[in-house]
Design a protein that fits this description.
- The structure is a homodimer.
- Chain A is mostly helical and about 220 residues long.
- Chain A has a domain at about 80-210: Tetracycline Repressor, domain 2 (Orthogonal Bundle).
- Chain A has 12 helices and no strands.
- Chain A has helices at about 20-35, 40-50, 55-60, 65-85, 95-110, 115-125, 130-140, 140-155, 170-175, 180, 185, 200-210.
- In chain A, helix 1 crosses helix 6, helix 4 (about 65-85) packs antiparallel against helix 5 and helix 5 packs antiparallel against helix 8.
- The first copy, chain A, is elongated and about 70 Å long.
- Chain A starts with 19 loop residues before the first helix and ends in a 5-residue tail after the last helix.
- At the A-B interface, helix 5, helix 6, helix 8, helix 9 and helix 10 of A face helix 5, helix 6, helix 8, helix 9 and helix 10 of B.
- Chain B binds a DNA duplex (30 and 30 nucleotides) through helix 3.
Chain lengths: ~220, ~220
DNA sequence: CTGGAAATTAAATTAATTGTTAATTAAATT
DNA sequence: AATTTAATTAACAATTAATTTAATTTCCAG
């Protein structure tokens, strides 16, 4: 429908701000995170960006290509550091250091971009999610491989709890981090929970992972 | 479209099986789990049940009332035991026993009804989920209250890791259990992961919660 | 046996949405 | 002045979904 009140057709006067295309990506990623990809009509993205749906076609061609652009230029770009944190060989340190680094990187990355976890949960982790195949291909193998192997190695050396299933560790870590942040908007509304911040979450997850509830 | 091949209008001959209404609820809950509530048209439920959409209106009135029936007669009914496992006062045992019981009950309940975790993730845990408010009202307060308090108590007694944030424990437990099972269809497809069963998952989660990776 | 109630389908209706395109307008650039 | 770029307006076309109505068949009570 009508974009920013009173805007008439025609090229606008030069603005100095960030370019339109990039702003549209920002709005799109936000909307995809809040309502899911298939739950976000172009018209809503357009409305939020104070623009018309036709402009989205002007910049991206069609919805699929918009999703593509969002994935490449926003999602994958953001996840690169977390990926590196496990794939870069860290000479000499064992599984627990590896995980510590991974957890910290993930939680920091994701705190800075609160739209990422909900998007992940909806579009990667739930059946029929539109980013599933893509991210399984590009992300999962490397991350799970590196973590699982490190755990197995330390377990053989008798350094780790033998009841831990190495192949479940990546899932557990995602559950404790991405999932926790994805549902932040839910549990932070419970009485007395408003003040839980990222630092607390990092400390909590690290403590739980390294020595569990009983503490070490 | 057309229900079971060649079925013509009219009341069918008496069948001895479970009643139609109940079967429709089963199909609905399954579909809601796979595709989400708003992603499931009545026509798909009808097709899967080899019936016409009109019959769903006959039994439930409209889609909202169908959702209501699913929640009351399937979802809440199933979760009752897990609720009891934390709310029933267990004389004398501390937080770790409480959690052990909760984890076991949740994992058992949910293994028997694999449709529950995906439904939860989609409709409770993600923003805009249709079961959010309902289940927040009915479930969350009691569960989180009981767990958080038990942890705080034991922490004051010096029995538990002080870096653990009591208010985050319920989230972490959900992340390690419900979430892990919700994504089962995802990670069980990775090479070498086919054989991870519920027993392994229970052992893993308990080990992680009680003493972390480093083991006790 | 008969007539009404129950269970079911077929078919139409209504209502909205949504991605997409075409035509048009106005500023910027050369 | 001519052309390209950035935007809007307006409408199409597909289709999708929930709901309603009428017809059909079987069951069951009297």
């Amino acid at each position: 429908m009508s974009p920013s009140r009173g805007r008439r057709p025609g090229r606008p006067e030069n603005s100095t701000g960030p370019d339109q295309r990039s702003q549209l990506l920002d709005v799109a990623v936000q909307q995809f995170s809040e309502h899911g990809i298939s739950g976000t009509p172009l018209s809503r993205i357009a409305r939020e960006a104070r623009v018309t749906p036709a402009l989205l076609h002007y910049y991206f061609g069609n919805k699929d290509q918009l999703v593509d652009a969002v994935v490449r230029e926003r999602v994958l770009a953001l996840m690169a550091p977390a990926l590196q944190s496990v794939t870069q060989p860290s000479p000499g340190d064992g599984a627990s250091h590896l995980l510590d680094r991974f957890v910290a990187t993930v939680l920091e990355t994701v705190s800075a971009a609160p739209w990422l976890p909900p998007l992940w949960v909806r579009e990667v982790l739930t059946e029929g999610g539109q980013l599933r195949e893509m991210l399984i291909r590009e992300v999962a193998p490397r991350v799970t491989g590196a973590i699982t192997e490190a755990i197995e190695r330390d377990q053989r050396l008798g350094l780790l709890n033998p009841d831990i299933e190495p192949r479940l560790v990546p899932i557990s870590v995602i559950g404790l981090t991405v999932f926790a942040l994805a549902t932040h908007s839910l549990w932070s509304r419970f009485p007395g929970n408003q003040d839980i911040d990222t630092a607390t979450l990092i400390r909590h997850v690290r403590a739980l992972l390294s020595s569990g509830l009983s503490g070490g």
